[in-house]
Design goal:
The chain has 251 residues and is mainly α. Helices cover 66% and strands 6% of the residues. Helix 7 crosses helix 9.
Length: 251
């Protein structure tokens, strides 16, 4: 376990135009050490003196960062025993920060499968509820996202953003605050997943993908709850199978 990677500036780092605090740097760095397996469940955290030297921060800043990681389920702090990495069952992947860190280290096959399983359990229900509760304003938001998808025939990232906008609009139309919250949390992972095998790579695939999404909106507009759920499931499965086939051939 190589924990000797150099730390960023102790005060703050400017990345993508944003200033990252020392606290956030420590939390993200240690979380990614855990997520990548550099620190494994059951491992004791390095000595406080070693962490202070690595990050170049105050003892107060370090301890606050460890409290944050403990709250997110990564660390188990016990008096006279020390701080150990918690078992992965305690890691809170429905914390938006945690999911962002996980996506940042790469979406391997297991993670893609887990994401697909969550989507299959959640999004067909969201589509069904949207068919029951949708308003004209909801439909307008969905159709605007569809139009955006149709326009984006070249940029993989922009198509993914349009695709995500449609799924979020459907979640909002479900009128279920828990579904809306989960959709918001997995937004980062979905955006990354949508860019792994973009439909923009072929005109026929682009057209087919947009029309498959249009069928979801049509069923929601018709208040066809079962049809909306089925159309959503078809979109999720088609996207997942396309990504896996492409990743397999690339490997």
């Amino acid at each position: 376990m190589d924990m000797s990677s150099p730390a960023s500036s102790p005060a703050s780092t400017r990345a993508s135009g944003h200033v990252v605090s020392a606290h956030d740097q420590i939390v993200r760095a240690l979380a990614q050490d855990i997520l990548t397996g550099a620190l494994e469940p059951g491992d004791k955290l390095p000595l406080e003196a070693d962490l202070l030297e690595r990050f170049g921060v105050s003892r107060t800043a370090l301890r606050e960062a460890l409290k944050t990681l403990s709250a997110k389920g990564f660390l188990n702090v016990k008096t006279r025993v020390g701080t150990r990495v918690s078992d992965s069952v305690h890691w809170n992947f429905f914390d938006k920060e945690v999911l962002t860190w996980r996506v940042a280290i790469g979406m391997d096959a297991q993670f893609r499968q887990h994401l697909a399983e969550v989507r299959r359990s959640l999004e067909p229900t969201a589509a069904s509820l949207a068919a029951r509760h949708r308003t004209e304003a909801d439909l307008a938001a969905m159709r605007a996202a569809l139009d955006w998808m149709r326009r984006e025939a070249a940029s993989a990232h922009e198509f993914a953003r349009a695709d995500l906008a449609l799924h979020l609009a459907i979640g909002a139309a479900s009128q279920n605050p828990m579904i809306r919250s989960v959709a918001g949390v997995i937004e980062t992972a979905l955006l990354e997943a949508f860019t792994l095998s973009p439909p923009t790579q072929a005109p026929a695939l682009h057209h087919e993908t947009v029309e498959a999404h249009a069928r979801i909106v049509e069923r929601i507009a018709a208040r066809d709850e079962a049809g909306a759920a089925q159309a959503m499931l078809a979109v999720i499965d088609a996207g997942y199978q396309r990504v896996e086939a492409e990743q397999s051939s690339a490997g």
